[in-house]
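INFO  loader      accepted 1 record
INFO  loader      residues=267
INFO  predictor   begin
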Amino acid sequence: MTEVRGSAGPNGGAHARRAPGTPCWVSLMVHDLTATEEFYEALFGWEFQPGPQQLGPYVRALLDGREVAGIGQLSPDLHLPIAWTPYFASQDVDQTAETARLCGGTVGVGPLDAAEAGRMAIGSDPSGAVFGIWQASAHLGTAVTGVPGTPAWNELLTFETAGVAKFYEAVFGYEEEPVVSADFDYVTLHAEGRPVAGIHGVGLALPRDRGPHWLTYFEVADADAALREVAGLGGRVLRPARDSAHGRVATVADPEGAVFSVIESPR
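INFO  predictor   done
INFO  writer      dumping tokens
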């Protein structure tokens, strides 16, 4: 991780339409929507309001009245991995989805309209990591970043960066900035000259039960306190808090198993 700030300022100023390829939303699909709302309300202080229902019951999480994330409910017969999914901005979701297909990816949902909010698709890269594509209309995406309870960074954990980075570069037009290191395989993806996401090649350290996947970091005021809260709410601590160059970081899972990281940025 090399950057943890989003497109809006820390005071939650008005956000504009994102540049293509910029992470603009994160969404989670679960089986028990009510219990999941209760978990994230207690952990991040989120409130909820109904969102587009094209894929079933869906709510938008609000922080101080501003939209920060979405949570939907899976039908009981669907046994899909429970995971936070980042959405990347596109000016033409149909064209972006077709490019993803041509570059070896798969599009599993859409493109389809999400009421007046915008147009979306969900796909996976050639290694199987799932991501979303969002063409904004009324809903521009996450409305505030840089404060506790908001998405801070999205990072792809995969076997190696070289091949998959070329896929994302072709689909979203990123520029790459590799970390020059013999033992650290990392590429930062830039959109319009700004770092927006990362790809971390971890080789055999990738969890066997998950495969390549995107990991969302959420800002917290106190990482250690957040871990105690996660455990008390029925979640799990997967990687204890540790200091890094970007702040104090930990990885956890919510009660349904959705993995995410928390970061306490330097003040």
